[in-house]
Amino acid sequence: MARGLERAGVPLVFTAHDTELVCPISTLLRPGNVVCDGGVRMRCLFTGCHVGLGGPYNLWQASVFGRQVQPKVRAFLCPSLRLTRYLYDNGFRPAIHLPPFVELPPDVPSAAYPMPPADPPTVGYLGRLESYKGVQVLLAALRELAGRWPDVRLDVAGEGPYRPRLERLAHDLGIDARVRFLGDVRGAAKEEFFRGIHLLAVPSVAWENFGFVAVEGLARGRPVVATDFGGLPDIVQDHESGRLVPVADATALSAALSDVLSDLGRARAWGLEGRRRVLEAFTPERHVAALVEVYEAVVRGEPLASRPAAGPGPTGTG
Description:
The chain is an alpha/beta fold.
């Protein structure tokens, strides 16, 4: 298809909706929660990652893409800064960061979300109940947190196939009385959920290309404690709108939750700062304007410069 489009004079732009270009299992984590440097290569079959029988196909697919498609792509668009860097470092250039937009209910930006009473201190989770979302790590962190905060509570909003295992885990950890599984929440129930928590936890243990729920929490003025991985650091600024913690580290997560709960005045300030930032940064208008800018340059045949993540390293064209 890429060859036919090129012959027809149609320029190609590739949007990286996930990490498959640089990871056959789209996690970018090796066993032991070791962050991988990316790249679909023969080594993927020997790192202990659960590549499975699809490994040879992944390698063949990557080879075909590299020979026939990659040279024809005028721009690789990435929703997160870190994925932009991954693509750049693995030769997918020009790699350009294009933040997504978030459509919130129209009354959220102007609605009031005062902090609930300090007692009981309440952590919230909102999302699918899948193993990669890391709620099992959050439960382990809650057990540690209970030593310092005897009345701490966790509200878990969402459904998914992992729920029965999480309920058993909460029981086995002796914290089931502290955890409320609320099921799927929408509309007014979702707003009630946000008004009842002091902070939102996003403890993902695999790559999140963006992290919509972190934006949802900050848009309601709630500080967010999130994994320092994937697109989440684009949304949460450590010690400014919440806390960032290593992947699957229950002790670090517990310490970060305790840090936020220890000063609710500061937590409120962090939430408001996060709210200001996300309502400004992730609008449809900003996204569309940046996208049109790329498309227009591609159509005109202008060279585009890579825009990888901030920090040391090349940032030139190509």
